[in-house]
Design a protein that fits this description.
The chain is mainly alpha-helical. α4 runs antiparallel to α8, α5 packs antiparallel against α6 and α6 packs antiparallel against α8. Helices cover about 55% and strands about 5% of the residues. About 25% of the residues are buried. The chain has 8 helices and 4 strands; from the N terminus they run αββββααααααα.
Amino acid sequence: MSSRLIYRNLRPVLTSSVQSSGLGTGPGIRGYVINHLPTVRFLSSDTSSSATGNNQPENSVQTADGKVISTYWGISPTKITKPDGSAWKWNCFQPWDSYKPDVSIDVTKHHKPSNFTDKFAYWTVQSLKIPVQLFFQRKHMCHAMLLETVAAVPGMVGGMLLHLKSLRRFEHSSGWIKALLEEAENERMHLMTFIELSQPKWYERAIVFTVQGVFFNAYFLSYVISPKLAHRITGYLEEEAVNSYTEFLEDIDAGKFENSPAPAIAIDYWRLPKDATLRDVVFVIRADEAHHRDINHYASDIQFQGRELKEAPAPIGYH
């Protein structure tokens, strides 16, 4: 049976599945309309044009700066429309990735160190805080950007190592891979929001390059040696992040920092009102950090009780 005949036979099934899942033309997910899907292609071994018999491009994709990328692989971007009819402009996240954060979370909670590992994690974070405070002081925007470049590392490292462990042991992770990668992506979106408001200077980029390289390798080793220590360190880092954003909010309220309009990416990602301000953005980011604090302390507690993470369901979507 030829591949074209296979496609004709499967096409009704594919169409029915796509429409039933809300991904076809018309009403989509949460009121968003997806009016164009990438072409389904089964002839991956035949990359030449059927019309000309040569390798001329069949499709093209236009980038944000207007440049055209030609391709014959049949992959074109999905066009998504908001409920108000306007186009969805973000490629870094989709409408179903956005959410309304739980800002009622207690931002004052603190895990009191009760054993040597806890104390080691706590004082490690406290020692790291000293040079950061001396350098940034009350330069909140620069501090926030550096903080997010570091805060996005633990979730990615933990998720990656659990992913490899799952493959190596032929076992499920109870959702912890997804939960930690969600955390890393959420932290990255914090950074994407802040760069809409301010661009780092060359020396700040150099600091990020250095700090991220050192921190990634140090955290990787700590997670390999003792995951419960690594999660506890992250829990205390998130506690400090909450404190930093609380100071940011205090300076905005005191008029020491301009309460500028919220960037469009923040309004769409956190489903904020159209007239949202920087204060609203910092407020929801602080809530995110508090949730990350809870997840990592919870992960550490599980392992301190002699259990593996896979034995407890992961808090996926905990925002």
